[in-house]
Design goal:
Layout lengths: L8 H12 L6 H8 L3 H13 L3 E5 L3 E6 L6 H5 L11 E7 L2 H10 L7 E7 L17 E8 L8 H20 L4 E3 L3 E4 L2 E13 L2 E12 L7 H4 L5 H5 L5 H22 L2 H9 L7 E6 L2 E10 L5 E4 L5 E4 L3 E5 L8
Parallel strand pairs: 3-4
Antiparallel strand pairs: 1-2, 4-5, 5-9, 6-7, 7-8, 8-9, 10-11, 10-14, 11-12, 12-13
The protein binds biotin.
Length: 336
């Protein structure tokens, strides 16, 4: 497994300086401003170029940063990131099997809250209910965040719902697109799935030992296979332009942190109200598949613990805590 446990501080300093400076800067000035030797600057400029940064170099004038790579590199994610506590370490992988799997390994080895795994592509990305998550290189966001909330395991559904709210907030703020949420946490744009969240945890004597929040978002996917095309979409497909993955990821980390801290301080009620405002499930007739069982009914409410409350054709109330929801069209539910 090829990983990087986080940026080299000298490289981060150098990059910050180059970002702020439009003109050429000599190697000597760079060395003085960043507190490195000339050789140290030179070595890091080479490393930045190898990472995909375009750096112009001219004799006697020095160096100038022209462009950053379209990668979710730790150096880029951390630059002016507005989070207070969730700030890495960030592991960036060109290829991961599943960022959630890696986060779980790190979690079991004692990695700190805020550890973030970012992959450009996944070979075995996982979705809910044992499904796979399509993760083509450089087109989507595939990340997992490690948390250690001092909470009992039964609060996991509420954190999962809060995460969906954080994605809605982030997309609204960063790129002006507001998806809906299909219970429990599918991000829906124009009736199709734009993203999903997979939360997994390890418990220890009725406490969460660690929690992994995995988020997958289809950003610049130009198309989907015919099997998926009817159900999946991307920001690019719906809006007809490409979107900055880095800006979205940073906004998500900021919004997630705000909601996570709110959840720890004040609990779930206010977040649930916001979830409801974005729900595409409530008030609809739905079918819930739970293995071989199927329950149908009107989605009446989401309870304080995150469960979906259905009213069945017999007028009974059924609480659903897991499963796959299908939204039924009005014509398919003559019994209501
Ligand atoms: C869903 O089924 O809706 C949840 C999809 C979650 C996919 C993300 S991509 C990053 C992280 N790593 C994984 O293997 N899965 C999650």
């Amino acid at each position: 497994m090829q990983t990087s446990p986080g940026p080299d501080p000298g490289l981060v300093e150098l990059l910050s300086f180059l970002r702020e400076e439009e003109n050429f800067v000599s190697g000597e000035v760079l060395a003085a401003r960043v507190g490195l030797s000339r050789a140290g600057v030179w070595k890091r400029l080479h490393r930045l170029k190898a990472m995909g940064y375009i750096i112009e170099g001219e004799p006697r004038r020095g160096y100038r940063l022209v462009a950053a790579p379209d990668k979710l590199l730790p150096e880029e994610v951390l630059y002016r990131l507005g989070t207070k506590t969730l700030r890495g370490p960030i592991y960036h992988l060109e290829i991961a099997e599943s960022t959630n799997d890696m986060a779980k390994v790190l979690g079991s080895q004692g990695a700190a809250e805020g550890t973030l795994i970012v992959a450009e592509t996944q070979t075995a990305g996982r979705g809910r209910l044992g499904r796979s998550w399509l993760s083509p290189p450089g087109l989507g966001i595939y990340v997992s965040l490690l948390l250690r909330p001092p909470l009992p395991p039964n609060e996991l559904p509420q954190i999962t719902l809060s995460t969906a709210v954080s994605v809605v907030r982030a997309l609204t703020r960063a790129v002006g697109v507001t998806p809906g949420i299909k219970w429990p946490n599918d991000l829906i744009l124009k009736g199709k799935k734009l993203g999903g969240i997979l939360t997994e945890m390890e418990t220890e004597s009725d406490q969460i030992r660690y929690l992994v929040v995995g988020m997958g978002l289809n950003v610049n996917n130009p198309d989907f296979s015919p099997e998926l095309g009817g159900r999946a979409t991307s920001l690019l497909k719906e809006e007809g332009r490409s979107f900055p993955r880095l800006t979205i990821l940073k906004a998500w980390l900021e919004e997630f942190e705000a909601l996570y801290l709110q959840f720890l301080a004040r609990g779930f009620p206010e977040i649930l109200e916001e979830w409801k405002q974005h729900s595409v499930t409530l008030g609809k007739y739905v079918a819930v598949r739970q293995g071989p069982r199927q329950i149908e009914g009107l989605a009446r409410e989401v309870a304080a613990d995150g469960a979906l409350v259905l009213e069945t054709t017999r007028g009974e109330e059924v609480r659903v805590t897991s499963g796959e929801i299908t939204l039924e069209s009005a014509g398919m539910s003559p019994n209501f």
